[in-house]
Amino acid sequence: MKIYDLSLPLSVTDPVFPGTPGMAYEHTQLISKDHYNLGLVHVNTHAGTHTDAPLHFIEGGTDLAAVDPGKYVGPAYVVECTDKGAFDVIDVSDVEPHAENIVRCRRVIFKTGWSKQFGRPEYFTDYPVISLELARWLTENGIVMVGVEPPSLNPALYIEVHQTLLEGGVAVVEGLTNLDCLPSQEIFFCGAPIALVEGDGFPIRALAIEF
């Protein structure tokens, strides 16, 4: 078995989505005086590699504690979109040649190479986007999870695209990386979030497993 880590390392010093709060780590106990280390982490719930719960964009929506973790565990199909640059649209025409495999796996990941921009301002603003039509196609075809390398889905239609997917029962994973290391287009994905009550999202450890 081989494991591929698809997660950005998470640090409280990492940049976060513009306009959202930064992070901090507080040491509350130390070995030097308490005989053990313990800390309090202030986490931006959409920092790094993370998932969005329906509550993120839907008033009264499902929180992370109620999201089915099975959506994040199972076969996923990786669609090659490395020809897409800043603001280029990933549309239904990009998935139609892979439709049979995507529907069979029920999880799809879009490989754009955008994670290489992490740490640069444009990482959060100029990324390839998921079209509203594609979001509708994914929900209509029973997809349970979509994963992308950028930190979000569509800067111009971020509300509409998120709501379409989340209302349609699609788990959203953003901020993936290392997709160029994957051995094939079909992988076994594992990245279930913690069961956070009232959680609108949270960083995850996204993995691809080769058995």
Overall description:
The protein starts with a strand and ends with a strand. The longest helix has 10 residues. It contains five helices and 13 strands. By secondary structure, the protein is of the alpha/beta class. The protein has a single domain, classed as Putative cyclase (Glucose Oxidase, domain 1, 3-Layer(bba) Sandwich). It has a nine-stranded mixed sheet with strand order 1-13-11-5-7-9-10-4-12, with helices on one face. A two-stranded antiparallel ribbon has the order 2-3. 16% of the residues lie in helices and 26% in strands.
Measured as a percent range, the helix fraction is 10-25%
Beta-strand proportion: 25-35%
Profile the largest sheet: 9 strands, mixed
Number of helices: 5
CATH homologous superfamily label: Putative cyclase
Radius of gyration: 17 Å
What is this structure's SSE topology?
Elements: E1 2-5, E2 24-29, H1 31-34, E3 38-42, E4 50-52, E5 73-80, E6 89-90, H2 92-95, H3 99-105, E7 107-111, E8 129-130, H4 132-140, E9 145-148, H5 158-167, E10 171-174, E11 186-190, E12 201-203, E13 207-210
Parallel strand pairs: 5-7, 6-8, 7-9, 9-10
Antiparallel strand pairs: 1-13, 2-3, 4-10, 4-12, 5-11, 11-13
Helix pairs in contact: 4-5
